[in-house]
Amino acid sequence: MTIAPNSIEARDIAYQMHPNVNLRTYEKSGGLVIESGDGIYVTDNNGKRYIEGLAGLWSVAVGFGEKRLAEVAKAQMEKLPYYHTFAYKTHGPSIELAEMLIKLAPVPMSKVHFTSSGSEANDLAAKMVWYRSNALGKPDKKKIIGRIYGYHGVTIAAGSITGLPRNHQSFDLPLDRMVHTSCPSYVHFGKDGESEADFTKRMLGDLEELIQREGPETIAAFWGEPVMGAGGVLVPPAGYWEGVQEILRKHDILLVVDEVICGFGRTGKMFACETYNIKPDVLVLSKQISSSYLPLSAILMNDNFYQPIADESDRIGSFGHGYTASGHPVATAVGLENLKIIQERDLVGNAAQLEEKFLARLKALAEHPVAHSSRGVGLLGALEIKPFADGKPGDAALAVAAALQEEGVICRAVMEAVCFCPPLIITAEQIDDMFDALGRALDTVAAKRA
Ligand code: PLP
Predict the structure, then answer these.
(1) What is the pTM of this model?
(2) Is any atom of ligand 1 closer than 6 Å to the C-beta of 118?
């Protein structure tokens, strides 16, 4: 792409430093300028329309043109554009959303604490775990177990629980309180001839071994996404979550479940905890909570987690944490309306109903000579691409994603896979459109490599 002087692309390069890019490449390539959105589509500044196959960043459940959210935001801005939840103050939207979340929660929860991003929520949940251990007189019980390829954000504690090298390298992470156990992706880490059941057993054995090596009395919590998203849509093998929970219970280790991607219908149930029968002590939510129309995240905690923290705040005199935007009234009002839309339109049911078609289309595409295999649950899926024999890791998936963008579909290339997580409002016909385009993109890549 040639970039004209003073064009919007040139000004972007001149003034903005972007996240998650090679900054030197960006200085030359610039980015795709998205100007508007409607339903499952976004449109660029040249008028080209794309299916947003990743719902933005795995987040825009209700689609890009939901007027009700704009109207609620406007009304809340006019009534009370900002107030905080510090220092014995509160406001209606945060109270209403907290109540709704407690009622929706997949297990009995006691309290909700609002933050503005998935990273902030996980970071604070880690701080709360430490605060709680101190409250319980267990100052040595502080370590947190994350998983290789797990993603929990990029702030210092959350980024340390994340198990992706690129989020650690040169940032002096992870903190040494964070340790990582094996990634339970059978398709990537199953050994030749190893059954899925044996793989699960090995993953659980690795976890037990790590706990023994570190000392069970030093470990406070285990963190996991029910399905790893940013690691490449890595679906857990059968029996994994049952086994993990048994081990954690045995060693008195808390379970923090990060449903930042999975929450609010992505797996065909309101929460993936229901899909996989997971009973968390702490549940971290974001993204689809507000369809990302405004930044919002939430930490839900059970009473066993909350009570020692409340006691400690009483001993010290205050819970010494909070953000200016914690429970922001416009964000929580939008979150509340967004969840009402998800319920009224039964978008969770839509995901459950379309799961079969969504996964069947991906599975059929896995037969393409360029592809390797497919995986997914609900409306979250990935197609693994065969690596180029003469390329760098990830080149083949990037080539497919680029060809697909030409075809008018945005997806996300992660490692050797292309990932899909469309808005929950997608229809069966639109799934066909998206995957017909993927078929053509695979053909293009195959033709270029022939
Ligand atoms: N946790 C999970 C599972 C995520 O997928 C993400 C972001 O993709 C985060 C946490 C971090 O959220 P944020 O980017 O809002 O900080």
Answers:
(1) 0.98
(2) yes
